[in-house]
Design goal:
Pfam families: HSP70 (PF00012). Belongs to the heat shock protein 70 family. With 78 residues, the chain is an alpha+beta fold. The protein has two helices and three strands, in the order βββαα. A hairpin with a 2-residue loop joins strand 2 (25-31) and strand 3 (34-37). The longest helix has 6 residues, at 47-52. The relative contact order is 0.12.
């Protein structure tokens, strides 16, 4: 399926993959050695919220994933 997935016996427990897209997101769960992709339209219901309640909407957060709390970019956004 995907060359970057580690499907070796060393992987234990549930493995979940998340693709945070600009318009939609996708979630997949490993079932054995196969990835099962969620068929839902995650993200679609939140588009009106972005336009009508911008003060309650997070945006441009993907660039902060994986950064430490004390990272300069994170501190700048605080």
């Amino acid at each position: 399926c995907c060359p970057f997935l580690d499907t070796s016996e060393a992987v234990r427990g549930a493995v979940i993959g998340i693709d945070l897209g600009t318009t939609n997101s996708c979630v997949a769960v490993m079932e054995g050695k196969q990835a099962k992709v969620s068929k839902g339209e995650i993200g679609r219901p939140h588009h009106p919220l972005r336009r009508h309640q911008p003060q309650n909407t997070l945006y441009a957060t993907k660039r902060l994933i994986g950064r430490r709390y004390d990272d300069a970019e994170v501190q700048k956004d605080l």
